[in-house]
Amino acid sequence: MSETTVSPAELDLTPAELAPFIQHTKIDPDATRDQMIAHAREAVTHGFNAAMVPASWLPLVVAELKGTGVEVASALDFPTVGVMTSAGKAAEAAEIARLGADQLDIGVQVGWLKSGRYDEFREDIAGVVRASGLPVKVMLELPLLTDAEKEAAVELAMEAGASFLKNASSGQIETANPASVRYLVDRAREGVRVKASGSIKSYRQGLELLRAGASLLGTSAGPAIITDTGDASTVSY
């Protein structure tokens, strides 16, 4: 995964230079085979960090991206988070890894956290980490949590082996913002990084998130961002 060697606050990147930080997302339920191939090729053309696709399309996209240097990411318990059983998540995580994904984003059991079921919340994440063997990015859904719950969620996710902390799963939960990124960066242990997600639509917004300390940007507006062609107004992921 791409990393920068300068202080985030000092980043002064052109639109095109944001490409290695972008995880190019396509999770439309009606996406066709041709559209998924085009999505993968677009990730290569622009030099994005990864193509994020549903698990059902992994065989196609993994084959398309083989040898290109662009990684393949997928997600589970998403876009509606917290609906899968822990056993189901672990099994799906293992299958996603078997199909060739390089990275995995996961939803969390927000209701368990809010009910004080901390051990189960942690183990739900840890089971995915163990089963997949992949870098796991945990969608914490920060706006749904109290201050105390946010602190607990961050610590439990890291205890479970999360490689990345994410502010939210989508723009329906939170528009990615520098304050949420800084909150996570300030609490991340050594080796744990931050991915910003949620209605990232423009070059300026992406740059501000990177300056706040994000290492990755999850968005379906990658081409508009790196060409600085304005807001992609329909983007929610």
Looking at this structure, what is the CATH superfamily?
A: Aldolase class I
Low-pLDDT runs of 5+ residues are: 1-5
Helix-strand pattern, N to C? EHEHEHEHHEHEHEHEH
Number of strands: 8
Overall mean pLDDT stands at: 93
| CATH 2nd-level architecture | Alpha-Beta Barrel
Can you tell me about this structure?
The protein is an alpha/beta fold. The protein has a single domain, classed as Aldolase class I (TIM Barrel). 39% of the residues lie in helices and 14% in strands. It has nine helices and eight strands. It has an eight-stranded parallel barrel, surrounded by seven helices. Helix 1 packs parallel to helix 2 and helix 5 runs parallel beside helix 6. The longest helix is centred in the middle third of the chain and has 15 residues. The two termini are 20 Å apart.
Q: Secondary-structure blueprint of this entry?
A:
Blueprint: E1 22-25, H1 33-46, E2 50-52, H2 58-65, E3 71-76, H3 86-98, E4 103-107, H4 110-114, H5 118-132, E5 136-139, H6 147-159, E6 164-166, H7 178-187, E7 193-197, H8 203-211, E8 216-219, H9 222-227
Parallel strand pairs: 1-2, 1-8, 2-3, 3-4, 4-5, 5-6, 6-7, 7-8
Helix pairs in contact: 1-2, 3-5, 5-6
GO cellular component, one term: cytoplasm
Domain Pterin-binding: 59-237
GO molecular function: deoxyribose-phosphate aldolase activity
